[in-house]
Amino acid sequence: MQEPTPTFAVKGVSTQPDNITQNRPTQLSFLLRRMLKLRQHPAGLLALVFIVLYLFLAIFGEQIAPYPYTQQHYTDTLKPPSITYWFGTDQFGRDVLSRVIVGSRDVLLLAFSAISFSGLLGLFIGLLAGYYGGLLDELLMRLMDIIMSFPALLLALLILSVYGSNFFNLILTLGIVFAPFIARVVRSAVLDVRSLEYIDAARLRGEGDFYIMTQEILPNIIPVVIVEFSLNFSYTILAGASLGFLGLGVQPPSPDWGLQVNEGSLYALIAPWVVIFPSIAISILVLSINVFADILGRILVGEGES
Amino acid sequence: MVIFLLRRLAFMLATLLFISLLIFVVTEVLPGDVATAILGRRATVENLAALREQLGLERPATTRYVDWLTGMLRGDWGDSLTLKVPIYPLVTERLGNSLILATLAFVIGVPLGLFLGIIAGLMQDSWVDHLISGSLLALISIPEFVLATTGIMVFAYQFQILPATSTIEANMNWQTVLLALILPTTTLVLGMLAHVGRMMRTSIAEVMHSQYIRTATLKGLKMRVVVLRHALPNALLPTISVIALEVGYLLGGIVVIENVFAYPGLGRLMLRGVTNQDLPLLQAVTLIMTFAFMLANFLADMVYMMLNPRIRYE
How far apart are CA B285 and CA B297, in angstroms? Predict the structure, then answer.
């Protein structure tokens, strides 16, 4: 196989003659190629590095943490940062560093589950409303309007206070609160695509509604959906942390950062480190995601189809 | 225009009705039995029956909803379960306090955000823009409770120039009240201006690239005139919608901030209702705060309409 390769061919992909169907990039490779533009954005790369670091800590946190996050050192309560306890200890003598590390697990697990739920819900509603239009669209969107006319945090507080706060309820609540935002964006993206000719072609071929929605429309709106997901991901983290801070999020002895700041704020006068480190941890995480989402938006959606 | 106003008003009332229904369903109908939910492990046959009696749970849900709604409209909001006082005077008093805080944050935060956004948008990709955009992005990434506790640690604990708690009472003199308001207001302002500023930057940068702005510049108008007369009215429109949504953020922020600073407003009252499962109190506070949010959205629509003469509402 020593024939000269065409300039546009990617090594190892295909040595066969040009064929439109075979050379058409798959959705995944298309997305990946767009993602390569990330190289031109150092801030986005840095943000990505931080996000990966947080993910790593979330997965391997308990192995990395110097102490078990619930271990109480009774003789070392509220100790300042030192060689033994890098971030100091809290009011129970628990190592703040270990709690901050393992906390990333609780924070990310909750936010990720919640955004997945609200993402799927929003995607489903947005697709239905945008595709079918008419009365169904009107009904679904008015329902979204009603949910959105509650201030997000208030609605979450209301639901959680009645049904109690546990992991499942938190996911459900945050999911419901944020789904309308995603549904709206998905709907308008679907409306843009729906009137295109290739959808008519699919319909004339006799494809069913479900096939058209999932196989023809969905791939085309994926970039918009990804950007909206990542934006709402940071909102979900902030909302989850605020709930944790108010005592209605993940419950003790979880090392959730919001909860840590809440518990530590009583001792902030004599032991500020109990508050400072989880505060920094959450701010950097959310900032990284926001920067990444910002640049993802520019790469995937902003620069158009060219 | 009058027709549009009336339609918008009718729609708002309809939504409010739905919202009241939703609040009622979420708090009283879905969990099966509220009394069991409130008492939890402390539930015994006697105190369950007593609480059901107190809440009037033996009546059908529809009757209870109608009673509750008409009560709300008449100003008879029932009694708080834990505080044992009528809710109406309690809520209206706290509402006043929260309004002071929210209004201050709004009046300072929105113009400041607009100003920063305009500067950054006009100087797009300069170092000024990078500085402002970067700071605003950092600000929207920091949770309010972190800003608030940091404020306390720096200005109350370290430098000791501002009070750590903002419990205000009627007999305090205005200097003390003002001093107590600084930290909570600043925290809310920072959040507000970040969201408003980011939106304003994007839309002014977009408008400045449009053809008609180039025409205005090329025909020799002063930069100031181009920006104020031509660019700003158009760039403000999308920002107004964001500002209306920001009020929702502000109301959520108020719950957090009031609790950090022990400020006697609606947010603190709400959390009290939440932790004590004081349902009548919770229902009333949620309804009032949601109503305030809707009113803000309504006002934003009005401003939007006044700024945009060519707008057509079907």
Answer: 19
